[in-house]
Amino acid sequence: MSAGVASDVVLFGGTGDLVMRKLVPALFHLHSLSLLDPGCRIIAVAREPFDDEAYRRLVADKARSFLHEGHDESAWAAFLARLEYVGCDVRDVASFNGLRERLKPGGSRLFYLSTTPALFSPICRNLSASGLILEDSRVIVEKPLGHDLASSQAINDEIGACFREDQIFRIDHYLGKEPVQNLLALRFGNSLFEPLWRREWVSDVQITVAETIGVGSRGEFYNSTGAMRDMIQNHILQLLCIVAMEPPASISPDAVRDEKLKVLRALRPIVEERIATHTVRGQYRAGAVEGQVVPGYLEEAGIPAGSRTETYVAIKAEIDSWRWAGVPFYLRTGKRMQDKLAEIVVNFRQMPHSIFGSGALGHFANRLVIQMQPNETVLLHMMAKQPGEVMRLEPVKLDLDFREAFRTQRLEAYARLLMDALRGNLTLFVRRDEQEAAWRWVEPVMNAWAESEELPRSYNAGTWGPAAASALLVRDGLGWHEEIAR
Ligand code: NAP
Q1: How confident is the model at residue 485, as a pLDDT?
Q2: Is the dihedral of CA 142, 60, 219, 338 positive or negative?
Q3: Which residues in the chain come in under a pLDDT of 70?
Q4: Sheet harboring 83-87: ordered strands across?
Q5: Residues 6+ away with beta carbon under 8 Å from 36
Q6: Displacement of CA 317 from its chain's centroid (Å)
Q7: 13 lines ligand 1 (CB under 6 A)
Q8: Phi/psi at 252 (nearest 5 deg)?
Q9: Looking at the whole model, is its pTM more than 0.85?
Q10: At what angle do helices 24-32 and 73-82 cross, to 10 degrees?
Q11: pLDDT for res 5
Q12: Going along 8-115, which residue ranges are E strands?
């Protein structure tokens, strides 16, 4: 099978980290599965004065360790031969001539802006001034799109002056993950869950994206960003939308994105009086992660003394809709946490009565876990009878391990999303109004934190974050997934 789209793919920022770690491996994976049309050319753009051969050598060196397991060396060599390179300072319109000479006249084009967002505007303007944006050209833009609502609107205006909204693919790679798409399949491809997917049956939802790594060499970038902008505003709110949206009429881009937008608009604003009861921000101090002693955030390279940037956020979100009124959605993310974990947990309500006698069920309630990391799996926690004569119940997990269930090749998120962009499918990309609605919800919280005298709460590296994050749930008579053994 071939994607059947002979686009020219232009990678702005072609010598950068994202291209080497994610985009080249993703394009190579598509190539090796014959999902990249043979007529599709890959043209990298950056300022270094490489020729094609020198660029291929750079890629061979830098991207190699990120390729998918068991890749075929001859396919890799053939892929490298497809790469081209154009030296260009994107701030200089004259240097786009080299790119024009390489592009197929009149052919479809996919521009991937893998540079700092400060360059998005010059790239779009100069592409447009050079006549390189055609009717069917597309642009993929990476996060972060701005650091608040106003700056995000400004960037969107600049891109929007050169591309129509249906040509703009705002990537959120969490939407490209298999378990997230499986959540769509689970919800809308089965009749089983829909009657239960509501306030009457769901007690609470927990969305966690936890990392064990610290800020590494990206201290300066991270310090001006923080966990709220880096994770909550985009990835975690997008996951919340997939869990909470109403069934769309179809899987078409606007049907899905309209429903996600309604969720974002129904999020109850966290006004100042609720900051203390609904949000927790933290910053890691020294500790031990996976047996290694690690420094605190303030000791990391590039972090100014006394920085108040949050490396951890927990939020109680509420959705004002008939389906979800009264159901808390607890969102959390952090660096230097105990485990690397990305999952959505849907906790169902407890049984109204135990026919097995008091205590037989303990605090058990059914729980659906959609896990993206460490394993891509969906687990349904159920109660079952232990084998033997006595009627003794025990929690067990129905495990839909995708690797076991489907022995076909899986696509990593970036490969999946690149393929969708080549095919012009916007369903898993974020629309401007969604992105701005997300900023509208997080911005008042960030402003309140910035104005507050309070410092972020400290937590030891290698733990699950500040104790106050547990209190957020305990107040509601609940606990985080890992705290409650059911
Ligand atoms: P990076 O390593 O700093 O790469 C930046 C690229 O832009 C380099 O290829 C650089 O090459 C090129 N560049 C800079 N100025 C240029 C100019 N005037 N004209 C032409 N090219 C220019 O950045 P990155 O980590 O790959 O990140 C790229 C974008 O993706 C950023 O917006 C980042 O926030 C986002 N992102 C990155 C990651 C990640 O894991 N790295 C994850 C999510 C999002 P020259 O200096 O040689 O020109």
Answers
A1: 52
A2: positive
A3: 1-6, 485-486
A4: 83-87, 41-46, 8-12, 109-113, 138-141, 168-170
A5: 2, 3, 27, 30, 422
A6: 18
A7: yes
A8: -65, 150
A9: yes
A10: 120
A11: 66
A12: 8-12, 41-46, 83-87, 109-113
Ligand 1 atom 40: the closest Cα is on which residue?
18
C-alpha span between 45 and 42 (Å, rounded) = 10
Residue 18 CA to ligand 1 center (angstroms) comes to 7
C-alpha 26/C-alpha 35 separation (Å) is 11
d(CA 222, ligand 1 centre) in Å: 15
Domains of the chain in sequence order: 7-170 (3.40.50.720), 175-411+432-484 (3.30.360.10)
The pLDDT value recorded for residue 142 is: 87
What are the residue numbers of the active site? 235
pLDDT for 61-119, tens place per residue? 999 999 988 889 999 999 999 999 999 999 999 999 999 999 988 889 999 999 999 99
Atom 21, ligand 1: which residue's CA is nearest? 46
Beta bridge partners of 368: 346, 380
- Nearest-angstrom CA–CA distance, 114 and 117: 8
**pLDDT at position 4:** 52
Q: Given the structure tokens 């890959």, which residue do they identify?
A: 42
Which of 116, 230, 231, 412 to probe ligand 1 with, by most ligand atoms within 8 A of CB? 116
Q: For a ligand 1 pocket test, name from 18, 19, 83, 89 the mutation site with the most ligand atoms within 8 angstroms of its C-beta.
A: 18
pLDDT at res. 2 = 46
Residue 279 contacts residue 313 (beta carbons within 8 Å): yes
User: How many Cα neighbours within 13 Å face the side chain of 344?
Assistant: 23
443: left (phi over 0), alpha (psi -120 to 50) or beta: alpha
Burial code (b: 16+ CB inside 10 Å, e: under 16) for 381-411 equals bebeeeeeeeeeeebeeeebebeeeeeeeeb
The residues, any chain, with a CB within 8 Å of residue 200's CB and separated by 6 or more, are: 349
In angstroms, what CA-CA distances link 309 with 38, 298, 446? 47, 10, 10
Are residues 344 and 207 in contact, defined by beta-carbon separation less than 8 angstroms?
yes
Question: What is the pairing mode between strands 8-12 and 109-113?
Answer: parallel
Locate 169 and state its tokens.
Answer: 């693919």
Annotated binding site for substrate: 173, 177, 211, 230, 335, 340
In whole angstroms, what is the distance from residue 444 CA to residue 398 CA?
41
